[in-house]
């Protein structure tokens, strides 16, 4: 199972170099930069990377978060602060909790870190499978970005030697499921409120992500869901 570190709009060369060094410490090789504000070839970044300059040199640069998500199977966001009221949030798990789930993950796992200045916004968090939060003191809860990367990669490193023979679902399969779920709500016209429809869709997406649902499990429930949507459409057309 591969791990990729995804940085959204990284701003400071010292942090970028330090993150590359931390990645090297814990055997993570792939760095994806989303619209970076700092050049990975910056001299200061290279200085702080020490012997991990190769990670900076091989970093992939994409224009937006969607471009990064296309490169991974599961995407996990990191957040130190809850979202705004109108965006449904769920309780994030700890890095240790993520590590316990690691053996069941199939494919590439992307860990998404937000901007040093303001983290990930609600729209970005909505696109991710679930979130991880590092428990910190309420007196000063916000961690330096490179320190947060180190804590999470350390927890994952301890579990990476464990493997699972059961395949987890792919991002494509989960998106197909969500499409049918969305269609089911449309046909039933429930919830009637568009906000609640969006809320329900986000909750279902996060349930699928957090559970690391297996491929065979997803296919088993996708079949009846697809059939239900087709039958409801047929009945609705007959009534019309």
Task: Give a short overview.
This protein has helices spanning 13-25, 43-49, 53-57, 65-69, 95-101, 122-126, 145-157, 171-188, 194-211, 215-239, and strands spanning 3-8, 30-34, 60-62, 74-78, 109-113, 130-132.
Protein architecture, described:
The protein is α/β, with parallel strands linked by helices. The chain has two domains: 3-157, SPOUT methyltransferase, trefoil knot domain (Alpha/beta knot); 171-239. 48% of the residues lie in helices and 11% in strands. The protein has ten helices and six strands. It has helices at residues 13-25, 43-49, 53-57, 65-69, 95-101, 122-126, 145-157, 171-188, 194-211, 215-239; strands at 3-8, 30-34, 60-62, 74-78, 109-113, 130-132. The chain has a six-stranded parallel beta sheet with strand order 3-2-1-5-4-6. Helix 1 (13-25) links the parallel strand 1 (3-8) and strand 2 (30-34). The longest helix is centred in the last third of the chain and has 25 residues, at 215-239. It is elongated. The termini are far apart.
Q: What portion of the residues fall into strands of 2 or more residues?
A: 5-15%
Shape descriptor: elongated
Oligomerization state of this entry? single chain
What are the segments in which pLDDT stays under 50 over at least 5 consecutive residues? Answer: 82-89
Classification by helices and strands: alpha/beta
Ends apart, CA distance between termini: 51 Å
Main sheet: strand order: 3-2-1-5-4-6
Q: Look up the CATH topology of the largest domain.
A: Alpha/beta knot
Report the strand count: 6
Task: Just give the CATH class of the largest domain.
Answer: Alpha Beta
**What do the pLDDT scores average to?**
88
Give the full name of the CATH homologous superfamily of the largest domain: SPOUT methyltransferase, trefoil knot domain
Rg is: 20 Å
Count of spatially separate domains:
2
Corresponding CATH architecture of the largest domain: 3-Layer(aba) Sandwich
Continuous helix count: 10
